[in-house]
Amino acid sequence: MKRISAIVCAVVLAAACILMTGCGGKYSDSKYLGKWKATKAEYSGVEMDVEEILGGEFSFTLDAGGKVSMKVVDKDYSGKWEETDEGVIFDGDNKLNLVDKGGKLEMDYTGITLTFEKEE
Of 14, 42, 76, 114, which is most buried with the most CB atoms under 10 A? Predict the structure, then answer.
Protein backbone atom coordinates (compact mmCIF):
# COMPACT_ATOMS: atom_id res chain seq x y z
CA MET A 1 0.00 0.00 0.00
CA LYS A 2 2.87 2.36 0.81
CA ARG A 3 4.34 1.69 -2.64
CA ILE A 4 1.06 2.64 -4.38
CA SER A 5 0.83 5.83 -2.33
CA ALA A 6 4.39 6.76 -3.31
CA ILE A 7 3.65 6.14 -7.00
CA VAL A 8 0.43 8.17 -6.88
CA CYS A 9 2.26 10.99 -5.09
CA ALA A 10 5.03 10.98 -7.72
CA VAL A 11 2.49 11.07 -10.59
CA VAL A 12 0.56 13.94 -9.00
CA LEU A 13 3.79 15.87 -8.39
CA ALA A 14 4.94 15.33 -12.00
CA ALA A 15 1.54 16.46 -13.35
CA ALA A 16 1.64 19.58 -11.17
CA CYS A 17 5.12 20.46 -12.48
CA ILE A 18 3.99 20.05 -16.09
CA LEU A 19 0.89 22.20 -15.53
CA MET A 20 2.86 24.93 -13.78
CA THR A 21 5.36 25.06 -16.63
CA GLY A 22 2.56 25.81 -19.09
CA CYS A 23 1.16 28.69 -17.04
CA GLY A 24 3.86 31.15 -18.06
CA GLY A 25 2.46 31.64 -21.53
CA LYS A 26 4.01 31.96 -24.93
CA TYR A 27 5.39 35.43 -24.23
CA SER A 28 6.08 35.25 -20.49
CA ASP A 29 9.55 36.78 -20.98
CA SER A 30 8.54 39.45 -23.50
CA LYS A 31 9.56 43.05 -22.87
CA TYR A 32 6.22 44.09 -24.38
CA LEU A 33 4.00 42.61 -21.64
CA GLY A 34 1.82 45.09 -19.78
CA LYS A 35 -0.22 48.21 -20.45
CA TRP A 36 0.75 50.71 -23.14
CA LYS A 37 -0.80 54.13 -23.74
CA ALA A 38 -0.61 56.48 -26.72
CA THR A 39 1.32 59.53 -25.54
CA LYS A 40 2.04 61.34 -28.79
CA ALA A 41 0.40 61.78 -32.17
CA GLU A 42 2.13 63.23 -35.21
CA TYR A 43 0.68 64.20 -38.57
CA SER A 44 2.80 65.72 -41.37
CA GLY A 45 5.56 66.57 -38.90
CA VAL A 46 3.20 68.36 -36.50
CA GLU A 47 2.87 66.92 -32.98
CA MET A 48 -0.65 66.87 -31.54
CA ASP A 49 -2.41 65.76 -28.37
CA VAL A 50 -3.64 62.15 -28.72
CA GLU A 51 -6.86 62.60 -26.79
CA GLU A 52 -7.67 65.79 -28.69
CA ILE A 53 -7.26 64.10 -32.09
CA LEU A 54 -9.01 60.84 -31.25
CA GLY A 55 -11.52 62.21 -28.78
CA GLY A 56 -10.23 60.02 -25.97
CA GLU A 57 -7.62 57.52 -24.81
CA PHE A 58 -5.95 54.86 -26.95
CA SER A 59 -4.33 52.11 -24.87
CA PHE A 60 -3.76 48.38 -24.93
CA THR A 61 -2.62 45.59 -22.63
CA LEU A 62 -0.56 42.60 -23.76
CA ASP A 63 -0.66 39.38 -21.76
CA ALA A 64 1.75 36.44 -21.70
CA GLY A 65 -0.73 34.13 -23.41
CA GLY A 66 -0.71 36.22 -26.61
CA LYS A 67 -3.96 38.12 -25.99
CA VAL A 68 -4.39 41.86 -26.40
CA SER A 69 -7.17 44.00 -24.95
CA MET A 70 -7.43 47.46 -26.46
CA LYS A 71 -9.37 50.61 -25.62
CA VAL A 72 -9.88 53.19 -28.32
CA VAL A 73 -11.81 56.17 -26.99
CA ASP A 74 -14.93 54.50 -25.56
CA LYS A 75 -14.76 51.15 -27.38
CA ASP A 76 -13.06 47.96 -26.21
CA TYR A 77 -11.47 45.48 -28.58
CA SER A 78 -9.64 42.21 -28.11
CA GLY A 79 -7.54 39.92 -30.22
CA LYS A 80 -4.19 38.22 -30.38
CA TRP A 81 -0.69 39.63 -30.56
CA GLU A 82 2.64 38.33 -31.76
CA GLU A 83 6.14 39.51 -31.06
CA THR A 84 8.17 40.13 -34.22
CA ASP A 85 11.74 41.18 -34.99
CA GLU A 86 10.46 44.76 -35.42
CA GLY A 87 8.02 44.94 -32.52
CA VAL A 88 4.44 43.69 -32.23
CA ILE A 89 1.57 42.75 -34.54
CA PHE A 90 -2.08 42.69 -33.43
CA ASP A 91 -4.47 40.36 -35.19
CA GLY A 92 -8.09 40.99 -34.37
CA ASP A 93 -10.75 43.17 -35.97
CA ASN A 94 -7.92 45.03 -37.71
CA LYS A 95 -4.32 43.96 -38.21
CA LEU A 96 -2.01 46.55 -36.65
CA ASN A 97 1.78 46.68 -36.86
CA LEU A 98 3.69 48.43 -34.06
CA VAL A 99 7.40 49.07 -34.48
CA ASP A 100 9.81 49.25 -31.53
CA LYS A 101 11.55 52.62 -31.51
CA GLY A 102 13.94 52.52 -28.57
CA GLY A 103 11.53 51.16 -25.96
CA LYS A 104 8.48 52.95 -27.36
CA LEU A 105 6.08 51.47 -29.89
CA GLU A 106 4.97 53.41 -32.98
CA MET A 107 2.22 52.71 -35.46
CA ASP A 108 0.57 54.45 -38.35
CA TYR A 109 -3.15 54.93 -37.73
CA THR A 110 -4.96 56.49 -40.71
CA GLY A 111 -1.98 58.69 -41.58
CA ILE A 112 -1.25 59.68 -37.99
CA THR A 113 1.84 58.25 -36.29
CA LEU A 114 0.98 57.26 -32.73
CA THR A 115 3.69 56.69 -30.13
CA PHE A 116 2.91 54.36 -27.21
CA GLU A 117 4.77 54.24 -23.93
CA LYS A 118 4.64 51.40 -21.43
CA GLU A 119 3.01 52.26 -18.12
CA GLU A 120 4.85 51.14 -15.01
Answer: 114
